[in-house]
Write a structure and sequence with these properties.
Helix content is about 45%, strand content about 5%. The chain is mainly alpha-helical.
């Protein structure tokens, strides 16, 4: 998913799990709906303005293999040419998370080796 934000993902994952149990009416599932989000087939680009705290919340809930960096260029929200610097300034973005956010996850999304 691109250009739709990412802060809603934990709510959506939890809501789908709850609805699959409560409402039923779904095809038989091998996994909870939220597990499909964390199973390596779902990716979402970040929106810089949602910030570091939201990034940490989402990665804590869904893991750090779902989100990928997108500059949002040429939209005004991207703060070009400082978009990447704004993300790299997040103190909690350690080297492993940074590599996944800026390279590994997009690489897997586009199925590069």
């Amino acid at each position: 998913m691109l250009e739709c934000g990412f802060g809603w993902l934990p709510f959506w994952a939890r809501r789908m799990d709850e609805q699959a149990l409560y409402v039923g009416g779904t095809a038989p599932l091998k996994h909870a709906p939220s597990e499909y989000l964390t199973g390596g087939r779902f990716f979402c680009s970040i929106e810089r303005q949602e910030g570091e705290d939201m990034f940490n919340t989402v990665t804590q809930y869904l893991g750090d293999e779902v989100l990928m960096y997108a500059s949002d260029y040429p939209h005004s929200e991207c703060q070009f040419p400082n978009s990447i610097d704004n993300i790299l300034a997040w103190p909690s973005l350690g080297s492993d998370k940074r590599k996944k956010l800026l390279w590994d996850n997009a690489n897997r999304f586009f199925k590069q080796t």
